[in-house]
Design goal:
Length: about 270
Amino acid sequence: MADETAQQTPQIGINLNIHQAHSARMYDYYLGGVTNFPADREAAGRALDAFPNARLAAHANRAFMRRATRTMAELGIDQFLDIGTGIPTSPNLHEVAQGVNAAARVVYADNDPIVLTHAEALLEGTAQGRTDYVQGDIRDARTILDAASRTLDLDRPVALSMVAVLHFVADRPEQSALDVVEAFTSRLASGSYLVITHFTADFDPEATARMENVYRSSGTDLQARSQEEVTTLFQGWRLLDPGVVASPRWNPGGDDTAVTDAQAGCYGGVAQLM
């Protein structure tokens, strides 16, 4: 366990709600994990019927996260806030960041209580760095940021990672996905980075529509967005090359090019606040 780590201990009697599918546990299933329950596996099975490339898309998304995190760490960023962490799947963001800079600080945030029970695995960082976990909902930026500020210095640049999470925020009159992004980024210092991957219908509209129906019928909002709509989420930020592209096309490495745009079904981008 890293020195000075502020670990949050799971509370006895917490409601895990294992009888309702949760997107984080479905994602764990796509990645071949075992932290999922019958409701998650049943919904994930229907999702795979609707969008057979879901497993490939999940792995491509994780590969994007690793490339983006490594890029930002190599650019000198030593603070990371990961929204929508999900079930721990090594290598996690802190492993990548601290592999470049052992003193990097990372805060994870998620609203699934199952993730809280795995916080100890998320907090296994380096002795020089620090990792923390915050239980919170992406729609409540203030609560997450206030808690994260115990570990991160928000007056210095932070890399805000919103990987495969904003498509679970449906646009509503009271709050849109852009509102959510701006609620977080409005408190970040100049020089900070924003990382987004997002499900899209641009490559396979019919399969995407089926996928949206599966998630909604399981009680989870899912709203695919176009390349233009995803680009709008970076409003006010300077996009790094190559801009908002299919996730395997963002500075690919290794086997990334083996995944087609349609299989990934997702856009990705990284931008800096000037």
